[in-house]
Amino acid sequence: MLRAGVDLGGTKIQVAILDPDGNVVGQCRIPTPQDAGPPGVLTAIVTAVRSAMLDAQAETSDLMGVGLGAPGQIDHAAGTVSHAGNLPDWLGTVAVTSVLRDALGVPIELANDVQVGIMAESKLGAGRPYSSLLGIFCGTGVGGGVVLNDTLWLGRGAAGEIGHMVVVPNGEKCPCGRRGCLEAYAGRSAMEIEARRRVKHGHKTDLFHIMQHKGRDRLASGVWAKALAQQDKMAKQLIHRAEWAVGIAAASAVNLLDVEAVIIGGGLGCRLGPPFVDRIRESMMPHLILPERPPQVLVAALGDLGGATGAALLVEHTVSPPGDLATVTDPDE
User: Fold this and answer.
1) Helices (H), the chain
2) Residue range 297-316: average pLDDT?
C-alpha cells in the first residue's frame, strides 16, 4: 500500500507518494489558491493528491492514508487547523480531516507542517546522526520544531514556534499582529512587505522586476536568490537582516536546550543553501553561552520534499531508509 504526504504552504501545495520502503514514487506541486478561501485550498489538496497518484501510476484505492502538514494551530482530536495566517482567509478554525477523508475515502493524519518536516529530517535527513536538534524553516513564515531524545517535543500542542520568539522588543510588526518576532524579519511575507515599503520611499531594487520576469505575483525564494546573484543591494540587506535574526533566535534556543544540531530548511533556507546557513552560524556564535561547543548548523537534506515526506510518515507504517528521498525539486517556494 502507498502513503501520501501533503505539505501545505502559503504559496504551494506539495504532495509526495511513498511506497512501503519509503521511496518517492509519485509527486505533484501546485500553487496554493489565493482567492477561494479554505474550501478552495481543501479542494486543491484533493486534486493534488489525485494527480500525484496518477504520477505514481496508481489508483486512490491503493492509498492506506494521507498525512497533511499544515501551518497554524493543529487540533489533532478535532481534525481542525486554526489561525493559519499564511494561508488565504484562514484566520478562524477550519475542519480539515473530515473534509479530506470524505473526498479521498482514506484515513487522514494531521500535524503542523514544520514539525513533520523536522521529523523527516530527524529520521531520514540531515538530523539522523543526532538525538537532539532544533529545526528552523524559513518560508512564507518561519516555523520551528524541537527533537529531544529522538522524539519530537510537542509541549501542549504548540511547541517549537520559534518564528514568534521576540528578537527585537517593540520591533517590526509580524504577520501574527505582534511586534519584534523572528518571522517579522525572516519570513518571506514580512520581507516582501518591507521591500515594498522601502520602494515606496524611493529605494531601488530589481526584486520586483525579477518577480515579474519569473511570472510570479509574490517574492518567492527563487526571486530572492536571483536578486542576490545580481548583487541587488536591497535584497542583500534584507537577507542579511534575516540571517542576523535567525542567528539570535537560534542561539537563544540553543542556550536553553543545548541541542546537538540546528537544521535550517524551508523554501528560503533550501534555496539559498550553505551560504545562508553559514552566515546564520556566524550570527549565532557571539550569543552562545558555550561558543567553544557550538551545535552543528546544517541545511535540511530532504529539500523541497521534506515536508511532504514527513507528512507521509504520519501514516502508521514502518519505513525503511529511503532509496531516493533526497531528490530535490526546485525549492522556489
Assistant:
1) 37-55, 97-104, 113-124, 183-186, 188-200, 207-213, 221-229, 233-257, 266-284, 306-312
2) 90
- Which three cell numbers, joined as nine digits, stand for 92? 478562524
| 130-299: CATH, from 3.90.550.10, 3.30.420.40, 3.30.70.3300, 3.30.450.20 | 3.30.420.40
The torsion region of residue 59 among left (phi > 0), alpha (psi -120 to 50) and beta comes to beta
Domain residues of the chain, as ranges? 2-117+303-312, 130-299
Contacts for 275 with CB less than 8 Å, ≥ 6 apart:
none
| pLDDT band of 319, cuts 50, 70, 90 | very low
105: left (phi over 0), alpha (psi -120 to 50) or beta: left
Which pLDDT value is given to residue 321?
Answer: 42
Determine if residue 13 is left, alpha or beta; phi over 0 gives left, psi from -120 to 50 gives alpha, anything else beta: beta
Residue 330 has pLDDT above 80, yes or no: no
Is this structure's pTM higher than 0.90? no
Q: What is d(CA 9, CA 267) in angstroms, rounded to the nearest whole number? A: 10
pLDDT for residue 168 is more than 70: yes
Cβ burial of 135 (10 Å; 0-12, 13-18, 19+) is buried
Q: Is the pLDDT reported for residue 329 higher than 50?
A: no
- How many C-beta neighbours within 10 Å does residue 232 have? 20
Asked whether the beta carbons of 295 and 289 are under 8 A apart, the reply is no
**CATH class, 2-117+303-312 region:** alpha beta
- Set of cell numbers at residue 29: 506541486
